[in-house]
Structures are given as C-alpha cells and as structure tokens.
Target: DEAD/DEAH box helicase
Amino acid sequence: MNPPAPAAFTLRDYQQDAVTATVQHFRASDDPAVIVLPTGAGKSLVIAELARLARRRILVITHVRELVEQNHAKYAALGLEAGIFSAGLGRKEFSHQVTFASVQSIARNLEHFADAFSLLIIDECHRVSEEEDSQYQQVISHLREHNPGLKVLGLTATPYRLGYGWIYRSHYRGFVRSEEPRVFDKCIFELPLSHMIRNGYLTPPEVVDAAIAHYDFSSLTPSDTGHYPERELNSLLAKHPRVTRAICEQIEELAQQRQGVMVFAATVEHAHEIGSYLPAGHTAVITGETPGDERERLITRFKARELKYLVNVAVLTTGFDAPHVDLIAILRPTASVSLYQQIVGRGLRLSDGKDNCLVIDYAGNGFNLHHPEVGTPKPSADSEPVQIFCPGCGFANIFWGKTDGNGQVIEHFGRRCQGLLEMEGEKPQQCDYRFRFKECPHCGAENDIAARYCQTCNEAIIDPDDLLKRALQLKDARVIRCAGISLSASGECLTVTYHEEQGEELRERFHLDRPAQRALFNKLFGRRCGNGESPRQFKTVAEAIAAESLLPAPDFVIAKQAGKKGRQGGYWQVRERLFDYQGAYRKANEM
Model:
C-alpha cells in the first residue's frame, strides 16, 4: 500500500491529540476504544485523518445519510477517493480502500464486505447496542470473522445513555465508568465543551432564564431511559395553551436580532402547536413522521435562510449542521446532561456575524452547560455534581450531591469509588471502596446496595423489602422510619436513640469498652461516618459523642419485644438497622 497522502488541512491541537491517542492505543491493543468530542469539535476531520493514515482497508459507518455524506466530504477534501455505500444516497461502492457507509445498508449487504478490514470507525457510537441481532453487532461480528484482530473505534459527543449507563468501561485518566461489560473498553481521548468555547472554537452560549411563565414538568417522572410518556406530556401541555403562546411570542420577539432559531418541542402534537404560533411562511416543523424528502427540503431551506424557525422533536440533536443558528429554545424536559449539551450544541458552531448563541430553557431542566455527565439520573431537582475523594485510594469522584450556602458538600449519592488502580504486571482494577453498601450476612463482605447475591461468597443477600414485610406482620416486632439519631453516655456505655418521624423512639446500647460491641458499633456507624467519606474506628464513648454530627442514621430500624411481657418488664430490642434503603417502602420525611 502507498504511503499516506499529505494532509490538505491542518488539524487543531486537540484533533491531532485524538489521532495520536488512537494510533498509540491500537499499536498496543485490539480493545475497542472511544473518542469523546463535543458537538462542533470536528469529528469528521479526525475520521478523515485516521483514514488518510491507514495502510489497509477501513470502514466508516454511522446511522444517518447526512453524516455519511459529511464524513465522506471531509475525506474527499484531502484529494483522496473513497467509496460510499448508502441506499439513501443512491451509491453502493465497496471496492475502495476507505468506505463511508450507513449501518443499515451494510447490514443488509454483508456479502459485499468479505475482505479483511483493519479498522471499523463508528460515528455517533452511543447508538451501538449490545444485542447480538442489532445491525451494528451484525457488522462487527461479520468483519471480525474475516479479521479477528479488527480494531473498532467509536466517536461520540454523548458517551452516556440513560437507562444503560456509560458506553465504555474505563477512562484514560484513570477511572472506571462501568462495572458491567461494554461494547467499548476504554475512552482514549476526551475534550470538554468548555475548552472549545474558551479557545474560540465554538460560539459562546448566552444562557438566560425565561423572562415569562415556563412549563413545570416536575410532576412527571421519566422512565429509566430518560424518556417522558408522550400521553402525560400532551395532557400537561394541553392544560397550558396560554403558556405555549406566550413563549412563542417571546421567542419571536427575541428572534428579531437573530439569524436562525431552533425550537425543541416535547411531543409531535406540541411541535405542531408551536409551529402554529410562529410566523407562517418562515417556520418549518420536523418530526419523526416527516417524510425523508420533505425533511431534506425543509432543512435545505432553513440552511439557506429561507426559513427562520425550525421546530423539531428529538430528530435534529445529532447529524445536523446549520452554523448560523444563534437562538436555541428548549421547550422539552430531559433527564440527561448529555442530551441537554447536544441540544445547545446545535447553536454553538462558528458563523460570520454571529457573536453568541442565545439559549433559553422554558422547561426548567436546570442543567449547567459545563457540568460533566455524572453517570446516574439526577436524584432530585436541587442536586448538582460534587467532588468526593475516596478514603481508600484518594481518587476524586464526581457524584450527584447537595451543597450548603457556602458550597460545602452536605450529602452525596455516590456508591462506589470510580478510581482505577494500576498494579505493575496486572490488569487495572476498580477501587473496591464503597461509600454506600449492604453487608453480606454470611461473610460480612460489602456489596452494592442493590445487590441480590454477595460478590464474595455468592450467597443470597436478604431483600430489605422482604425483611420489612415480615417484621410488619409480626405482633412482637416494631418497625420505625428513622428520621435521625442522638447519642448519650454513661461511662463507657453509649446509648443510640433512633427517632421516628412521628416522635416515637427506640434505643440501643453499645459498651465501647467491650471489644465485640465496639467492633459492632464501628461496623454500623464508624465505617459510614460522613457519608462514607470519613470512616472512623472509635475507641471511646467520648470520641463517638464528639463525632455525633458525622454519624449516619439508618432509614429503618426493626426491633423485637424482649424480656418479660407486660407493662413493667418488657422492652424493645433492636435487631436490624437498614442503611441506604432503596425499595417500595417510604422513608422518613418523604412524601
């Protein structure tokens, strides 16, 4: 094969870094890898450079024909020839060294790709499913049959999917994203959106609060995948037609000094309602129901500035490039930081006469554009990303949490440290420190709070809901929802009082001068000190009293009647304390 052709353009520093990281990774490993670049960072140029450097056959696939065409165009700009295999583009070429294709067309014509390919590049790789019968997996399996050493590289701006999690297992900066197997093993390069804006590669966003009434979607609960039920959305929106009209009036007023406006609607019905309020003849509505030819015609007119307003429902968050867009109006809820950043990214590309992009969120999503993706759904509206150091390995984790007025973390929702420990001569392992955990009753090992079986001894762990259900059915058992604890002392005997939300109490005594009881107290409370951030080993009652504010309260306490029954002699003996409870029963102070 001939040596690489000279580049026809100069890569930006981070684009060259991404290319270098890819070459270095695949020289040392065949493990599938991911590059994370924000919208507008020029993934097409990175792909083009990798294809230019290749000595053997390369296949570049994605899910929409617009991206197939865009990626091919960047490669062609180098003065090099490549094939296109896409039914939507009316071309089926498969004999070139480099082929740009749609995954749908390849999956239906695998017999044309029987030669050995050295590299498969997947653009928008967050769409790759683990299901064996998915089109992406069919393509990967077929190519590996002809070359077991096939290198697989994914590129995306959104490496996290709600309901699934991170699309890769570990990160080159030394932390773990997923404890479960993933299609991609490692993220080998990532660039934050803030770097792009700070260095003038993207237009600065001007994020403002809606100056008028906005939607309140807080009563709706998204699914595990982050989607809101369309019927419930339509029902809520139908109750507030005046809000939608007022929003559209404000958008039209703000758009007077703007070049192009993109509006993101919640549902198809909502999109058409919005379209009816915006100027006729200057507005287009695109949904999943819009025929392909009509969609292409409307997008062409919008890019040519014949249309000023483009209303859409979840169809223009990827693979769409209209640099003149300088007003983004968000009228839909989302539970994903990544999707929010994708939406805003539609308006951040550079364009002549464009100083900034106005971003207005009428849905109250409450995301900071520069916040990192935490990796779990936002637990509450007032949660924000917080940095938590691991007491075990020192890694700085990013979890959802809450802060006080001074910015100090008062609570976080992290479970396990994400740090990646590298031992000489061994495969890197995730740090096993857990901030929240459930103990195995058989061997005492710490497990994830949702675990059903112990990761150490494989024995079944008692389901907290089963434990509560059985206790509630017993006449001689008592269950309280614990709203807090308090401590008192008599010598080296420490009394822990569990306060029920309605004012009832249970008490438990620990003699800290006795090794067994001191070990139990430290196991229950000392290990969990400060949300698991400050584990302690208390030796005296005075030490425990001094650290009372750091001690956690269990969510439920179960006691059984002991001693002589009757008014004089009976008492309640604490048997179980359920920390970090997640289940069907309501915890204290919850609605």
About this structure: Residues 13-28 form the longest helix (16 residues). The first strand starts at residue 33 and ends at 36.
